[in-house]
Amino acid sequence: MSEPQNPPKLFLHKPKKASHPPGGEMGEQVVRVPVVQQPAAATAVPTAPLKPPFWYRYRAGVGALLLVNLGIGGYVLSRPKPVLDSQLHKGAIEPEPAKAKSAPEQVPVPVVAAAVAAPEWAPPPKVTISEEEQRQVLEWILQERRKVKTQNKAEKARIDEEKKMLKQFLRASHLPPLL
Fold first, then answer.
1. d(CA 122, CA 130)
2. What is the pTM assigned to this prediction?
3. Is 134 within 8 Å of 128 (Cβ atoms)?
4. Which parts of the sequence are annotated with region: Disordered (predicted)?
């Protein structure tokens, strides 16, 4: 046993019929050759694990965002459309469509713009404020101006001018009307 034996030949691929040893058929001679498996890690290139897509990672947030968008869209579409002032004051009234064919056809009568009387706009009545109430309002404005924290010199100068004017009004014996 000290003599080295010839190791068996290992084939990586299945041999073809032409490469079989001469001298007989394959059925007569059965030769078992052990198959050596090569480790897969040595030949395969290591790959990084796949990163899940963005939407899959944050699927709860994406779902919530879609639901909120759906709710806002439903709210916006279900609201009644506002009537603009220009549509109200045009004075043209659209004729209503005919309800049934059994009724005799009616010819729409054109509406004259003068016939539709739009109410005239009138300014609201003026409210008179007593002189004592005016003084209280001016004192309150002056107190608020004193509380203001200025950011730069120009703003401070403007507020000082306003305070100076308010003090002049308060010292006067008669106040000018506010309204």
1. 24
2. 0.32
3. no
4. 1-25
